[in-house]
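Limitations
The structure tokens in this dataset are predictions for the assembled complex, not deposited experimental models. Users should treat interface geometry with appropriate caution, especially where small molecules or nucleic acid strands are included. An illustrative entry is reproduced here so readers can see what is and is not provided.
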Amino acid sequence: MKELKTIIESLLFVSDIPLSIKKMKELLDDVSEADVAAAVRELVDEYSRREGGVFLAEVAGGFQFRTADISTPWILKLRGGRPASLSQAALETLAVVAYRQPVLKSDIEQVRGVDVSAALKGLLEKNLVRVVGRKDVPGRPIMYGTTKRFLEVFGLKDLSELPTLRELNELEEEEPFD
Amino acid sequence: MKELKTIIESLLFVSDIPLSIKKMKELLDDVSEADVAAAVRELVDEYSRREGGVFLAEVAGGFQFRTADISTPWILKLRGGRPASLSQAALETLAVVAYRQPVLKSDIEQVRGVDVSAALKGLLEKNLVRVVGRKDVPGRPIMYGTTKRFLEVFGLKDLSELPTLRELNELEEEEPFD
Amino acid sequence: MNGAPIGGISGVMDYRIKLDIFEGPLDLLLYLIRKNEIDIYDIPISMITEQYIAYLDAMKSLNLDLAGEYLVLAATLLHIKSRMLLPVHEEEGAEEEDPRAELVRQLLEYQAFKEAALDLNNRKLLDRDLFARQEPVDDIDDDGDSPIREVGVFELVKAFQRVITERGGDFTMEIDTETMSLSQRVSEILDLLNEKRTLTFDELLGREFNRRSVVFTFLALLELMKMRVARAFQQAPYETIRIYLAVELEGTEDHEGAENDY
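Predicted assembly:
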């Protein structure tokens, strides 16, 4: 039964939602619900006796690994500092700024076909985009460009290291010989 | 120090990417890197001795909880997907990038004797390979290298853990032609 | 379909199965060397060339797309074969290289990487042989100071391409490395102007005085003037050229919906 317990522990570990005894029984072949329940019980006891950073809790009709209360402040700190991914809108706006800089907001909107105020604001806050100047035309519109931080995030020495569309298209060619 | 170990265990448990000793030290206040390293070591040993469904692996410059081999078929069943695998073309291309980085597309093609556009694009999309810069020669071609994700997926601590290329060494030693 | 003899078909099918597993001409050649148990340092070129070409013929007869690389290697083999037939002049060029040397080097190198690929594949791969916990679904985005998840320039250029293609052909302006070098220079000049308010052309050039940097600095300046971002003044011919921002950045209250500290 050691093996059953090992497999159940792995399943509980990788699952992002609580797993019920019934669900686990379905996944495992030729095992009774009683056997699954017994193995789960053993795991619950083991982790509880151990008093480590993780324990197995019975929640929402199933079982799930949870962290110890004592760790909560640090987990929040880890999560808070978790790298956020750029949204599609942000990435596209950033791409237009990067390849067309110095560029006006109206230029970006013309290329993307949508209002980019929110995306641009987010990029300015993240310090990926900055104001680089104003144009001497009516309204004196602001021009945007990328920052040093942008180069750092994307691991570039300077803008000329950005791949070009032609280079991207070359990679997309699949059968160059026919 | 029991408390430190508990918190570290929780942090490693909730993180979806390997955590380095340095990163953990930053999250925890007033703790030395040596203390963090010692606690992590203890956890690695504990999980290894226990031989359960989870163990703590050292990968990509950090530590990460991973599941035991024995559980793989059932996890795949739970996740309901096919296992991620790479084609032979992708693996060969990846091998050349890993050992020769920073490397040009033309260098990879020289070694493999075929066009590698599609394979390279697939690896870029899987985030196993990245653009690392341009080479300072006419045309300034793009240079490629491997990512942190590559180390994570292949379970390598760092690039120096890659085995040496056997036959190449042999060739250089023997010099059968001159 | 004509009535080809059964043996012929199965022979051809045999080739076909093999061809599917070859990763290219070098792979096919390595296979032939192994199949014939040949010493890689002493390849009988005539025999191997014959077999190699037989495989290519089989490919053609099956109407398989024959990648050009296969033909290039066939030509190389034939060339080596002809060089091997030439008499060796022992007296003059005793140090003459074996015509097969370069090919052998290439084969050994490829073989080494093939092994390395196998080693990689034999490792315990994440999401194939073992698993970690998956990324939590709650994606905290748009928190000003949170770090940014590792994203490569490949994704950036793809995003740009997506934008361009979605908007049709009116933005297909070619962007090459020269354009980006120019953008880089423009951004540097704007930095300097924002900091110092005015500069001479010489100051712009700085100490880096190669032809390339002079040309790009000049082009970048023209670009900025054309865009009406910078102005240049010269008191008299041959005098120092002074460059100013066309519009001062300070006191700009209108930030077009994008609050920031610049």
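Some entries come with short summary sentences. For this one: Chain A touches chain B at residues 3, 5-15, 27-28, 51-54, 65, 67-68, 70-71, 74-75, 77-79, 81, 155-157, 160-161, 163, 167, 170-174, 176-177 (CB under 8 Å).
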